[in-house]
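Exam prep: given the inputs below (a chain plus flavin mononucleotide), describe the expected output before reading on.
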Amino acid sequence: MTGEPLPAFRDDLELTLAECWRLLQEGAASRHSAFHVPTVATLDEQGLPELRTMVLRAAEPERRLLRFHTDRRSAKIAQVARSPSGAIHIYDKPSGIQLRLAASLSIEMEGDEVDAAWAASRSFSRICYRVTAAPGSEVEHPEDVAFDHGAADEGRGQFCILLARIHRIEWLHLAHAGHRRAVFEADEKNAGKPEWKGRWLVP
Ligand SMILES: Cc1cc2nc3c(=O)[nH]c(=O)nc-3n(C[C@H](O)[C@H](O)[C@H](O)COP(=O)(O)O)c2cc1C
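Solution:
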């Protein structure tokens, strides 16, 4: 929970929505932010929720998009192909802010955006994509996990991006002066600049 002074966004829906996207953009840029490592939910083949931590790589309010990087052999890829329904959760203890996002998920394996994401990735991060067996497959012993260190493409062949197009944002701000809760829903019909409708909720 936060103390005084009260932030400007506290009783203002427009500023609260702007703060959501500011925090997400800060999360993508700074590994010190709680918003850097959201929990991403997908639905498994039984329709049950699956949760995992992922590094937030980019947040674009104009496109209502969050970008994540992953291995195209990982379980979440087949899950997203079956059901695009996703959810994202973040809680930042120092600020007392929780975000719950509803999203439509998609996977991109080729194209300019994937090429640019790969080009910007560090060689240390690329090593993960050189693991020879699919992430999540069973091994007899932990030491049996092998990496193709000589891979000509450095692992690019296993790399893909997960895009989350956000259509609902639920904001909760815990504060001694009184909690604030709001929901923002995107106008799905609007293909251009996103329009959000915000409402206050009982915390
Ligand atoms: C701090 C942290 C950051 C992570 N970042 C990513 C990531 O950016 N991409 C990813 O695919 N997995 C990441 N993981 C691993 C996932 O949480 C998960 O274990 C893995 O992706 C397998 O998930 P799946 O079997 O549902 O596909 C991260 C885990 C932690 C603890």
